[in-house]
Amino acid sequence: MTHPFSLTGRVAVITGGAGLLGMKHAEVIAAHGGIPVLVDIVAAHDQARNLEERFHVPAFGCRTDITDPAAVRGMLDEVLSRLQRLDILINNAANNPKVGQSGNVNFSRLESFPLDQWNADIAVGLTGAHLCSQILGSHMAQAFREYGCRGVILNVASDLAVIAPDQRIYRQPGLPEHLQPAKPVTYSVVKSGLVGLTRYLATYWADSGVRVNAISPGGVYTGQPEAFVQKLTSLIPMGRMANADEYQGAVLFLVSDASSYMTGHNLVCDGGRTAW
Predict the structure, then answer these.
(1) What CATH code is carried by the domain that includes residue 28?
(2) Domain of residue 26, residue span
(3) Which of 12, 140, 179, 182 could form a disulfide with 175, with the two C-beta atoms 3.0–4.6 Å apart?
(4) Is residue 156 part of a domain?
């Protein structure tokens, strides 16, 4: 009997695969026998080679602009040409300005948020997820109808798809109100949209062998300023931010047969923040 968490031989496309969480998703997939394909706007060959050496699976990187339908179709063709199958899609790519990153103070506020930044964020986070789901998900649905092969889509949302950002944690002392940094509006819109996309696709393909779920992580500690960390952790019952590898178990559960009777769900992993 196959272990329900086994991913042996299954091919998983991970958008934003060269990033911090993208690599963590890829690691847990490779550790359980899956074959991660790191799709990113930047080259991910070194990261893929690292996975190959550590987990002895034929991982590879595929440079792709997921906002371009032709590029997404080309990526699917490359995956099928090299690996002859596709089982899992993780829509992980997003634009997300980092706390403390220079240049964010003015444009992050709603009153002055630029339209071109709105369009860019929506294009990557929502349009990209739609195109990848449309093109790769349609292939998985067809594979089920023809061969009985089941597929999985996992959308990476956020605790800010469930609650609004608490803008107080981003404030900087001494700055006038119009210069105070804020979590950009597009982050909430994109992540909330991904949860809606999850429910739509889950019911649309329920009879086509494609399960679709979302995961809503809380904030990951990556060396953010101490004042920010203290303010955020005061909002989290567990009293800390997540480590980068603490979502791996949830990701494995959602993309494996361990969650075979689960679709249309948003799994919140936030240290209890949304329970308060």
Answers:
(1) 3.40.50.720
(2) 11-270
(3) 179
(4) yes
Placement of tokens 């203290």 in the chain: 230
Domain total of the chain:
1
Q: Which long-range contacts (CB under 8 A, 24 or more apart) does 134-139 make?
A: 135/69, 135/72, 135/73, 135/76, 136/13, 136/72, 136/76, 136/86, 136/89, 137/89, 137/201, 137/205, 137/210, 137/212, 139/76, 139/80, 139/86
- How does pLDDT run along the chain (276 residues), one tens digit per residue? 789 999 999 999 999 999 999 999 999 999 999 999 999 999 999 999 999 999 999 999 999 999 999 999 999 999 999 999 999 999 999 996 654 444 444 689 999 999 999 999 999 999 999 999 999 999 999 999 999 999 999 999 999 999 999 999 999 999 999 999 999 999 999 999 999 999 999 999 999 999 999 999 999 999 999 999 999 999 999 999 999 999 999 999 999 999 999 999 999 999 999 999
User: What is d(CA 270, CA 219) in angstroms, rounded to the nearest whole number?
Assistant: 7
pTM: 0.96
